[in-house]
Amino acid sequence: MMNSWFRFWWYWLIITTCGLTIFSLSLVIFPDFMQSVFNAIFFSTSQAQTTFSEVANSYIKFICGLLGAVMIGWSVTLFLILAGPFRRRQIEAWYAITGSILIWFMVDSSFSLSTGFWQNAVLNMIFFVFFGIPLAVTYRDFIK
After folding, report:
1. Staple 56 to which of 24, 52, 114, 115, CB 3.0 to 4.6 Å?
2. What's the pLDDT tens digit per position in 59-77?
3. Which segments within the chain are labelled E, that is strand?
4. CA angle at residue 37 from 103 to 21, to 5 degrees?
5. Range scoring the smallest mean pLDDT among 29-38, 97-106, 117-126
């Protein structure tokens, strides 16, 4: 049985993971739209792809779809951990989710900053905060 406080944060993580899944599916299903969104974020124009060759645009779509597919797989793993061991307050579940979020955030954001795409690091920060708050708050629920 979950107390109402833990349940609130558990639902928060479920909803955040749903948001991650929708974002990931968008990369696969709507690559042109997502490319225009990223172009607007990174290049201050949604039409930046017009300066790329057709081959470069195809490759960008491929990479976005590949990224989306990997993130969908990650989301499924997060859902399965949240639905079972996290809900049962098994500390390994908390470590698994927290570890995957921390590693993703550090590697992705460091790479983004080192390549000059700080905007992606800002986007990462949004997801990091939405996952980080409930993970930080629920840690005590996992300590026996």
Report:
1. 52
2. 988 999 999 999 999 999 9
3. none
4. 45
5. 29-38
